[in-house]
Amino acid sequence: MNEPNRPNEANEPRIWPGIIVGTLLIEAFTCLLRFGLKLESTRDTASTIGRLTMGLRIHHSYIGAAIVLLVIPTIHRYPKIARYLLIVGASLILSDLIHHFVVLAYWVGDPQFDLWY
């Protein structure tokens, strides 16, 4: 028997397929920028974004974590919107981790997960 405040799990859409697809799309775009267009954040954004952030390097996982934290208080009031935002936030986090600790570590030899420019 279901709890009165809890929706039937059989009717809830799964979020993991969305997170996996989102992660792959974001990572493909990130790899296109890095390897296709030869962009490097340390070299190409330090003089612009680096100045705005006072030298703090903003990884897309930070933005994803902020989105996930913003979803928490709204998940019961706006479940559909929260679900999509959770997918976006988790995809940003996973993509950044994969990009630094798998892709860059393997192909460049250094994860380049710097906190400062």
TrEMBL record:
Name under which the protein is recorded: Uncharacterized protein
Residue intervals passing through the bilayer: 15-37, 58-75, 81-108
Assigned keywords, A-Z: Membrane, Transmembrane, Transmembrane helix
